[in-house]
Amino acid sequence: MASQNTSEDGKMNVAIDGPAGAGKSTVARLVAEELGYIYVDTGAMYRAVSLHMLRKDISPEDMTQVLQEAQDLVIDLQPDRGGQKVFCNGEDVTSEIRSREVTGIVSRYAQIEGLRTQLVDTQRQMALRKGVVMDGRDIGTTVLPDAEVKIFMTASVQERALRRFKELEPSDGLTLEQLERDIATRDKLDENREVSPLRCAEDAIVLDTTKMNIHEVVDKIVSYCTMVRGESGL
């Protein structure tokens, strides 16, 4: 894959897509660290919007109200000790946006075309200067279709549910079977939504991580990025 649009210092944009629970965010963050790039978690942006709407009791069906409210939202992503903090109007919402309530409804807000347009514009601005690793569900197809590197991460529903289960606190009270059902439902919503459905870009590298650990996945992606830069003579 030629990378004609790399920056003068050889930096590229890396798009990582895939279904819920595939480990995109963790992998993308670690890849960004290895490459010295900026990490952008687009899913966290949609989650922050969803949390705000839930607090305001604004239903995803009330699209006009959602769009009006979203215009005044300020969402900020900041690096934090190898991770990333998410702020909404100055408030740290990093933990709250991962609640089951937000997880269960974020796809419905994400289907609102006007909201996606607002956030996609913001995400593209973040990537203008290159050197960005961005993960989501439509990065390689919609947000950054010209990204020099595109990865589509996947894994079995059972493996993705198990990974989520291991991240939960005992107080969450969720069973592995519940998580499998939740993820299968989320897959259907993401794949069948009218606006920017979950799709693998035609020129993406498909990476099935079911039997891979996180370090193997990161190493494989970083190696591929290095190869692409080498092919470009950078």
Please count the helical segments. 9
- Say how many strands there are: 8
CATH superfamily: P-loop containing nucleotide triphosphate hydrolases
CATH topology: Rossmann fold
Strand content: 15-25%
N- to C-terminal separation? Answer: 13 Å
Class by helix and strand content? alpha/beta
Largest sheet: 5 strands, parallel
Binding site for ATP: 18-26
Keywords: ATP-binding, Cytoplasm, Kinase, Nucleotide-binding, Transferase
GO cellular component, one term: cytosol
Family: Belongs to the cytidylate kinase family. Type 1 subfamily.
From the structure above, extract its key features:
single chain; 234 residues; alpha/beta; Rossmann fold; five-stranded parallel sheet; three-stranded antiparallel sheet; 8 strands; globular; ATP-binding; kinase
